[in-house]
Design a protein that fits this description.
The chain has helices spanning 78-84, 87-103, 118-127, 155-161, 169-183, 211-223, 235-243, 257-266, 274-281, 285-288, 293-315, 336-346, 350-356, 359-364; strands spanning 4-13, 18-28, 31-37, 48-51, 56-59, 61-66, 106-111, 135-138, 188-191, 228-232, 248-251, 269-271, 319-320, 382-385, 402-407, 410-414, 417-418. With 420 residues, it is an alpha/beta fold. The chain folds into two domains: 4-59 and 374-418, Urease, subunit C, domain 1; 61-364, Metal-dependent hydrolases (TIM Barrel, Alpha-Beta Barrel). It starts with a strand and ends with a strand. 51% of the residues are buried. The chain binds zinc ion (ZN). The site of zinc ion has 4 residues, from loops.
Length: 420
């Protein structure tokens, strides 16, 4: 197979957080085969050369918290959306939304919970190159504690929807993990506290699962080669999740210094989802009317702590990986906004934000041998950017600056248009 060569670009070295000019990358069989100074490049006659002089080459970006099946409009009325949307439609939405991420330079995404089993089928069809899309890691249905998450709807509807799954005790937990594995999950998503959009009665301070259950979940998941991600707002739910060995804490709104110290020791990752919280900051009075007042109250209550707590976690040295909770804040395909929010709200540098979206995200999902940096032997997932995002991250929000998106060494999008 002929080689694809990107000549003479400025490569973002995500491991060391610097830009190296005059670099040429040779891609063969989906992977980076050689990288070095352009003057040392040994040209072969069949090489397909792309001149990237003056352009910045980033490793493919990663968003570790999305919900592919959902549209942004759903957020304003989950009950109606769930009642009116057929399961098959959710699968098609997932495909369209996955492609929106790919077009925007996000070549790997982690789906943190779906209604149907569509995401694992989508992942398979993308991996088989039957459909074009990003690399997907999927949780399928999260492991939730019945009675503490209201699902979306009135009681009778919930009873109708209920999947006869009351998970309790360590045996119940082991069963639930194995069932997710059989359904095609790459990792386990759970919730250790109530949530903002989970319903009026779902209290964000409430700590779900007892310690034995959490330990059983993590042990069984890890035994089967899966990590666990947990949604957590309240401080106790954050703490028990970290204590049990959960790998990524999603949101972490009311995280304490004590928990943060344990995260640093254990190497736990925080996925701040600043985008999701910006949603409540930016709601117009008219749009607020779409929500029950309890939900608005919860969102506004948490918004008071988040920037400060996440900043504290970052300053104390917690590993940070990018995740948006798309489509809560906006439609899929706008994950680059999170980079800016991490800089503005948490005090990270643009370089650190880009590391959170590349090498740190890869480490969080234990794929740092394959993804997250532009090195020999890794998958050739990368973005060729017009302009320097290290100076101005907003460049990444404008798709015309994303000259090429490559996944597995193939150009999959040019300036926001898919190369189907
Ligand atoms: Zn989420």
């Amino acid at each position: 197979m002929s080689r694809v060569v990107l000549r003479n670009g400025k490569v973002f070295d995500s491991l060391n957080g610097k830009l190296i000019d005059g670099q040429t990358i040779i891609i063969q069989d989906r992977k980076i085969n050689w990288i070095g100074q352009d003057s040392s490049y040994d040209q072969e006659s069949k090489d397909k050369i792309i001149d990237v002089s003056g352009k910045v080459l980033l490793p493919g970006l990663m968003d570790l918290h999305v919900h592919l099946e959902f549209l942004h409009e759903f957020i304003y009325n989950m009950e109606r959306a769930m009642l009116r949307t057929k399961d098959a439609m959710l699968g098609y939405y997932a495909l369209k939304n996955a492609q929106e991420h790919l077009k925007s330079g996000f070549t790997t995404i982690r789906d943190c919970g779906s209604e149907t089993l569509a995401p694992s089928s989508l992942r398979k069809l993308i991996n088989e190159e039957f459909l074009l899309g990003p690399r997907c890691l999927v949780a399928q249905q999260p492991i939730v504690q019945w009675g503490n998450k209201e699902e979306f709807g009135p009681h009778d509807w919930i009873k109708f929807m209920r999947r006869e799954e009351v998970i309790s005790g360590t045996d119940g937990m082991i069963h639930a993990v194995r069932e997710r594995r059989r359904d095609g999950s790459d990792f386990i998503k759970t919730i250790t506290t109530g949530g903002v959009l989970h319903g009026q009665e779902s209290k964000v301070e409430l700590s779900l699962w007892n310690n034995d259950e959490l330990h059983a979940m993590v042990a069984e998941a890890e035994r089967l080669g899966m990590h666990v991600a947990s949604h957590a707002h309240g401080s106790l739910g954050n703490h028990t999740a970290v204590e049990a060995g959960i790998r990524t804490i999603e949101h972490g709104s009311m995280i304490t210094e004590e928990t943060v110290r344990m995260m640093v020791k254990k190497g736990t990752y925080l996925v701040p989802t600043q985008s999701a919280f910006s949603f409540f900051d930016n709601l117009t009075p008219e749009k607020k009317k779409a929500f029950p007042p309890e939900i608005i109250e919860k969102g506004e209550h948490l918004a008071q702590f988040i920037a400060e707590n996440h900043k504290m976690a970052y300053e104390k040295g917690v590993n940070i990986a990018l995740g948006t909770d798309a489509p809560v804040a906006s439609a899929h395909g706008n994950s680059a906004r999170e980079l800016l929010l991490m800089v503005e709200n948490m005090g990270m540098t643009p370089i650190e934000a880009l590391q959170a979206a590349t090498i740190n995200a890869a480490r969080a999902i234990r794929m740092e041998e394959e993804l997250g940096s532009l090195e020999v032997g890794k998958y050739a997932d990368l973005v060729v950017v017009n302009g320097n995002p290290l100076d101005d991250l907003t460049l990444l929000e404008q798709k015309e600056n994303l000259l090429y998106v490559l996944k597995d060494g193939k150009i999959v999008a040019k300036q926001g248009r898919l190369e189907l």
